[in-house]
Design brief:
By secondary structure, the chain is of the alpha+beta class. The chain is 35% helix and 22% strand. It folds into 2 domains: 135 residues, Creatinase/prolidase N-terminal domain (Creatine Amidinohydrolase, Chain A, domain 1, 3-Layer(aba) Sandwich); 224 residues, Creatinase/methionine aminopeptidase superfamily (Creatine Amidinohydrolase), CATH 3.90.230.
């Protein structure tokens, strides 16, 4: 696997780049619509709206046809939408966004409408049905835009790489402060503060710091518990930069590890690195998961690995594709995924190691290249 050269350049694209990327994304969406014979597609997931238009407000509804795009916002977001949105007509709506959509559908005599099944609530769906009556055939779409988002362009990869760089730098700085007597909460807060100080918009998710027996909880929240000698500490962190996330986990041990502790740690690292090397175009995502499980099974630890091996990373910290048992999807060049096997022993502790990895044409590229051999804190 290749480690990236840190890229510290300013990551905000100019207007022409923004227009080009938005045009490509909307063109891909329209190609999908044509395949499904959809004259119109309603987008209500705000992350998907940001991907397709660059509008990053917290209220808005977008609709696309083969020739046009419309973004409805309420008066709080009119100025922001006009500054950010590309490839759509921005319409300010004071009487309810979905009411405006219903009126638009009626005026344009739409007969087939695709909508995001997972992101349109019952009340708004009923309103659209009432407005359209029997004239509109409503077609639920699952994962339409999310499938497009799974493959990143160069601009997106650059942002994730930048988020990964900040994540690695912050972990290295905080690792030098780790010692018995500090609380998990104090370390988690320090990590998120340093991310912002380095230019990140913040943490991509609530930073996990879990020590001792709490390290057996894969999604433990940082608590007031104090770190102690002779226990593992899991750090799961990721910065967000330009709207894009990184995701990395490292586990350290406070004190002199026993032979048993060393065996457990080396098993997880081996599983993670073997699985990471299998992140190649054309490989089934379920096969990456299987590599990690087989490695841990060879050490008698498979039953202690209780979650999937990984997931996509981008505008959200968890998105497509899934690297899980039995998944049939094949990895594609340009996808960015995590590989994060772990071992969790109830009442004792846990170990997890995770990297954000680009599926590159020349092989996997680790975007969070923090060392894994500096795990003993004495």
């Amino acid at each position: 696997m290749r480690n990236p050269t840190p890229d510290t350049r300013h990551l905000t694209p100019d207007t022409s780049d923004a227009l080009d990327s938005v045009a490509r994304r909307q063109s891909s969406l329209r190609a999908t619509m044509e395949e499904r014979r959809l004259p119109a597609f309603l987008v209500t997931n705000l992350t998907n709206i940001a991907y397709l238009t660059r509008f990053r407000g917290t209220a808005g509804v977008a609709l696309f046809t083969s020739r046009e795009g419309v973004l409805w916002v309420d008066p709080r977001y009119t100025l922001q939408a006009r500054e950010q949105a590309r490839g759509v007509e921005v319409i300010e709506e004071k009487k309810g966004l979905h009411n405006a959509v219903a009126e638009w559908l009626k005026n344009h005599k739409i007969r087939r409408l695709g909508y995001e099944q997972a992101h349109l609530n019952c009340a708004h769906f009923s309103l659209l049905q009432q407005a359209g009556g029997r004239r509109i055939n409503f077609l639920p779409i699952v994962g339409g835009v999310e499938q497009l988002r799974a493959v990143k362009d160069e601009e997106e990869v650059a942002k994730i790489r930048g988020a990964g760089r900040i994540t690695v730098e912050v972990f290295a700085e905080v690792l030098g402060r780790v010692r018995p007597g500090l609380s998990e909460f104090e370390l988690g807060t320090e990590i998120e503060y340093r991310m912002r100080k380095k230019g990140a918009e913040g943490a991509a998710f609530e930073t996990i710091v879990a020590s001792g027996a709490r390290a057996a909880l894969p999604h433990a929240r940082a608590s007031r518990k104090l770190l102690r000698e002779n226990e593992f500490v899991i750090f799961d962190l990721g910065a967000i930069l330009g709207g894009y996330a990184a995701d990395m986990t490292r586990t350290v041990y406070l004190g002199e590890p026993t032979r048993h502790v060393r065996r457990l740690y080396s098993a997880v690292v081996e599983a993670q690195e073997r699985a990471a090397r299998s992140v190649l175009p054309g490989v089934r995502t379920g096969d990456v998961d299987a590599v990690a499980r087989r490695t841990l099974a060879g050490r008698g630890l498979a039953r202690f690995f209780t979650h999937s091996t990984g997931h996509g990373v981008g505008l959200e910290a968890h998105e497509l594709p899934r690297l899980a048992r039995g998944e049939k999807a094949r990895l594609q060049t340009g996808q960015v995924v995590t590989v994060e096997p772990g071992v969790y022993l109830e009442g004792w502790g846990g170990i997890r190691v995770e990297d954000t990895i680009l599926v590159g044409p020349a092989g996997p590229e680790v975007l969070t290249p923090a060392p894994k051999d500096q795990w003993i804190v004495e």
